[in-house]
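It would be a great kindness if you could assist me with a short task in structural biology. The full record is reproduced below for your convenience:
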Amino acid sequence: VVEAKAAFQKCIDDYKSDPVLVYAGWNGAAACLEQEGNLREAAAKYEAFAQKYDRSPFAGAALKEAARCYGQAGDREKERAILQMLIDKHKNTPMASEAQARLKTM
């Protein structure tokens, strides 16, 4: 995992202007944190991407992953807040519909 984290960080550092590669780097880095069992840290990483790159086509996906990780970590309040943020910022998208459905089951 250590080598993977370094590779994903290099991707983030080297490809800041490429929205696909920068998301791949952030997503991979967060996935490494999940693999290590650091769900809150992973969630925060996904959330940070969505805030920093709020105009990215991947921001909604990052929020969805953040909510999932917060939920798995047992932080239902933060999960709800992120799901609501996803709904508010990405209206009329399939991800917003999924977030609404998830909120109804909580």
User: Anything to note?
Assistant: The two ends are 33 Å apart (CA to CA). The chain has a mean pLDDT of 94. The helical segments are 2-14, 19-35, 39-52, 59-72, 76-89, 94-105. The first helix runs from residue 2 to 14.
